[in-house]
């Protein structure tokens, strides 16, 4: 199989050892998406106490606005990310991040309630960055390790950027101007890491032999892939949807959750808890690169997702019984949510394409899943009468995590049964073995 001309190796990286090229790629991807989070999450460290918009708690309105923008970007990305040419990815990342910073300035400077539009535009700007970065990493023998590094960035950045936001608030910045200031701190590094991504070499012939060539997808390609594997893909997407909702609740309302647990979080608490979560998820999902056979790796990733669901239940049982304190609970819950979330990012869809030899790319399947997940989260916060951030919100959060953990495990179980019944005939045994 010939390498597409559009994916030629950058002269900057030509001739460099594979390990050095992989290290370059994972540093570039980690850094680029870590910086992206600095334009998306620091504002959630603010609580906007006793402040309302349209008679509703302001933080709930702002969460909804950003989620709606992010959700819309995911639906647009189903087509854009599937069809984008490799050469356009770097410029796209830089333009989207710059747009996100401008939207934060709008959030700070515009009067209420117009400022809400700033966070909507912020979500709209950032929703396609992950797919553009992912395109540099897929279709390689080490894709799981590279993508695990990328996913570790958004786990660690979620806590670290809240810490940055809390630090800026402590320095006297207002809740409205703090997000733009946080983004400005990371604008230069974001451009540097985007440049690094542009120098990542294309998959080599051995990568293509083991994982299949990844190509842009037109509408017919997208429809054909979904039609051939609809039940299995739908089951994975359903599980991902549920985990996305539960993860979103934990991420967007972390200060309120810590307070409800009786341990108001200091700035460092966000970073410390997420660093432990990132380490566990990175190890659990990154090790799948050692499984050469694509079928075995695919089912191993489902097993990792099921283990995460079991950990969610264990954390909730421990909290109810008083056996688990607030910090261990948040770490266990984070691990339980991120294990299936990251397994789908790193391995399930990647190995599904490899074992079926489908014409297509990982970004398309991820954006189908992301669009469904953020649509569900937006529906939750809209149709439940917004999310509760006053009083004691913990009972609602716990009920959400219980239902999502149990139902997500059912979705992954259906996917296992469906693909197990079909996998023997999907591809010749020697492919990917």
Automatic annotation (TrEMBL):
InterPro entries, A to Z: DUF5690, MFS_trans_sf
Swiss-Prot/TrEMBL keywords: Membrane, Transmembrane, Transmembrane helix
Presence of the UniProt keyword Ribosomal protein in the record: no
Superkingdom classification of source: Bacteria
Positions of transmembrane segments: 21-40, 60-78, 90-110, 116-137, 149-170, 176-197, 230-249, 269-291, 298-317, 323-344, 364-387, 399-419
A Pfam cross-reference name: DUF5690
Record's protein name: DUF5690 family protein
Species of origin: Paludisphaera mucosa
Species classification: Bacteria, Pseudomonadati, Planctomycetota, Planctomycetia, Isosphaerales
């Amino acid at each position: 199989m010939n390498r597409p001309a559009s994916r030629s190796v950058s002269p900057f990286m030509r001739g460099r050892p594979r390990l050095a090229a992989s290290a370059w790629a994972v540093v570039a991807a980690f850094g680029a998406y870590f910086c992206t989070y600095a334009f998306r999450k620091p504002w959630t460290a603010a609580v906007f106490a006793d402040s309302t918009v349209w008679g509703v708690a302001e933080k709930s309105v702002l969460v909804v606005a950003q989620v709606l923008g992010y959700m819309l970007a995911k639906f647009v990305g189903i087509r854009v990310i599937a069809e984008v040419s490799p050469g356009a990815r770097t410029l796209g990342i830089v333009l989207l991040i710059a747009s996100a910073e401008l939207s934060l300035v709008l959030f700070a400077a515009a009067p209420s309630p117009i400022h809400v539009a700033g966070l909507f535009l912020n979500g709209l700007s950032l929703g396609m960055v992950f797919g553009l970065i992912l395109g540099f990493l897929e279709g390689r023998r080490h894709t799981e390790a590279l993508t695990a590094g990328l996913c570790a960035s958004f786990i660690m950045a979620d806590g670290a950027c809240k810490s940055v936001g809390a630090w800026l608030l402590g320095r006297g910045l207002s809740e409205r101007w703090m997000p733009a200031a946080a983004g400005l701190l990371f604008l230069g590094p974001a451009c540097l890491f985007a440049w690094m991504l542009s120098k990542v070499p294309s998959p080599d012939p051995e990568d293509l032999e083991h994982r299949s060539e990844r190509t842009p997808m037109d509408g017919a390609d997208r429809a054909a892939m979904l039609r051939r594997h609809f039940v299995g893909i739908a089951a994975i997407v359903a599980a991902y949807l549920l985990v996305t909702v539960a993860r979103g609740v934990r991420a967007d309302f972390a200060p309120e959750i810590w307070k409800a647990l009786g341990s108001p979080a200091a700035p460092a608490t966000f970073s410390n808890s997420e660093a432990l979560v990132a380490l566990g998820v990175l190890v659990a999902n990154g090790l799948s690169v050692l499984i050469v056979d694509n079928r075995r790796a695919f089912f191993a990733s489902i097993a990792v997702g099921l283990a995460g669901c079991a950990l969610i239940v264990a954390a909730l049982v421990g909290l109810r019984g008083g056996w688990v304190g607030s910090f261990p609970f948040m770490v266990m819950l984070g691990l339980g949510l991120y294990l299936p979330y990251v397994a789908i990012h790193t391995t399930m869809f990647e190995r599904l394409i490899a074992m079926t030899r489908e014409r297509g790319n990982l970004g398309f399947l991820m954006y189908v899943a992301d669009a469904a997940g953020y649509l569900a989260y937006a529906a939750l916060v809209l149709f439940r009468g917004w999310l509760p951030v006053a009083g004691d919100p913990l009972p609602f959060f716990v009920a959400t995590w219980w239902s999502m953990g149990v139902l997500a495990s059912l979705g992954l179980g259906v996917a296992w049964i469906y693909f197990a019944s079909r996998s023997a005939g999907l591809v010749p045994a020697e492919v990917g073995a």
